[in-house]
Write a structure and sequence with these properties.
- A 6-stranded mixed β-sheet has the order 1-3-2-4-6-5.
- The longest helix is centred in the N-terminal third of the chain and has 20 residues, at about 1-20.
- It has a single domain, classed as Uracil-DNA glycosylase-like domain (Uracil-DNA Glycosylase, subunit E, 3-Layer(aba) Sandwich).
- Helix 1 packs antiparallel against helix 5 (about 105-120).
- Helices cover about 50% and strands about 15% of the residues.
- The protein is α/β, with parallel strands linked by helices.
């Protein structure tokens, strides 16, 4: 139990630091909430999106709008729900009018995300969309590598990165939706392989 309390305390510390250091003050000014993350801090899987949208900003939780609903549906297809995984974004404040996060904003939040992952220690990091993928797999194109697990060194740990399309993109594009559901279906097998190789 103390392990969990410890993890939560460390995550709270990162949040407090973001507020104290006033990361991305322009974004903070227009946002309602700092959206850190949600879910099981002992999860094997961490999902990383790009930035909170309107619903996320209002509720202070990631992926609670239409894209979040779709993510929940996909989790159900592999026998999981939100309480089995942890969900966060690279950028922790909503960009105005849901615009894409700027390179400087991602860069400012990146060290906090890496610390979050160091605390969570997931077996697999699922990046949702190109914004969160490009930091883990620089120079790759999501159209080329979606659904393919990649093992990378991350700080002192090795982690499996699984790049997927963003659920929001798939909501408006039928063929992407199919692709994302197919890619998603591979997650249990990847986890099985990781557990086998331990």
């Amino acid at each position: 139990m103390s392990q969990n309390v410890n993890k939560q305390a460390l995550l709270d510390q990162i949040k407090a630091e973001i507020l104290r250091e006033n990361v991305c003050p322009d974004l903070a000014e227009t946002a309602t909430n700092l959206v850190m993350g949600d879910g099981n801090i002992d999860a094997d899987i961490v999902f990383i999106g790009e930035a909170p949208g309107k619903n996320e900003d209002l509720q202070g939780l990631p992926f609670v709008g239409a894209a979040g609903k779709f993510l929940n549906e996909m989790l159900a297809t592999i026998g999981m729900d939100r309480s089995d995984v942890y969900i966060t974004n690279i950028v922790k404040y909503r960009p105005p009018n849901n615009r894409d996060p700027l390179p400087d904003e991602k860069k400012a939040f990146w060290p906090y995300l890496t610390r979050q992952l160091a605390v969570l220690q997931p077996k697999i990091v699922v990046t949702l969309g190109r914004h969160s993928m490009e930091y883990f797999l620089p120079g790759k194109r999501i159209t080329d590598v979606h659904g393919e697990p990649k093992r990378i060194s991350f700080g002192t740990q090795k982690v499996i990165i699984l790049p997927l399309y963003h659920p929001a993109a798939a909501l408006y594009n039928g063929s992407l939706r199919e692709t994302l559901i197919d890619d998603f279906a591979g997650i249990p097998e990847i986890i099985k392989q990781i557990n086998k190789s331990k």
